[in-house]
Amino acid sequence: MLERTLCAAVALLLAAHASARDLLDADVAFRSQARLIKPGLIEIRYDTAPGYYLYRDRLAFSVGPPTAALGKPILPKGKVKQDEFFGKW
């Protein structure tokens, strides 16, 4: 029984390692474009690779120089996802 459990654990670790290698780099999975709509309004669009999605509460934006400031982003309505690792988002 212990041998079977160890084999299953090793198989899971190998599968997890293989999955991590198969992930796209963030720059590829979440391609973005930004454009100035008008003074004070910047539009950012993401072209998200199939099978990938963005977490609304994990988005962060910044501008330069440090004296510039951003308001609260206006985000479109999102879709609720059931993630196998993080649960319902």
Topology:
Elements: H1 2-22, H2 26-29, E1 30-38, E2 41-48, E3 82-83, E4 87-88
Antiparallel strand pairs: 1-2, 3-4
List the defining traits of the structure above.
alpha+beta; 89 residues; globular; 28% helix; two-stranded antiparallel ribbon; disordered N terminus; 2 helices; two-stranded antiparallel sheet
Description:
This protein has 89 residues and is an alpha+beta fold. It is 28% helix and 24% strand. The strands form 2 sheets. A two-stranded antiparallel ribbon has the order 1-2. Strands 3-4 form a two-stranded antiparallel sheet. The model is unreliable at 1-18 (pLDDT under 50).
Quick summary:
The protein has 89 residues and is α+β, with helices and mostly antiparallel strands. Helices cover 28% and strands 24% of the residues.
Distance between the termini: 37 Å
Catalogue the unreliable spans: 1-18
Strand order in the sheet with the most strands: 1-2
What is Rg? 20 Å
Shape field:
globular
Instruction: State which percent range the strand residues make up.
Output: 15-25%
Please report the total strand number as a whole number.
Answer: 4
Largest sheet: 2 strands, antiparallel
Instruction: Work out the helicity level.
Output: 25-40%
Number of helices: 2
Order of helices and strands: HHEEEE
Mean pLDDT: 78
Coarse structural class: alpha+beta
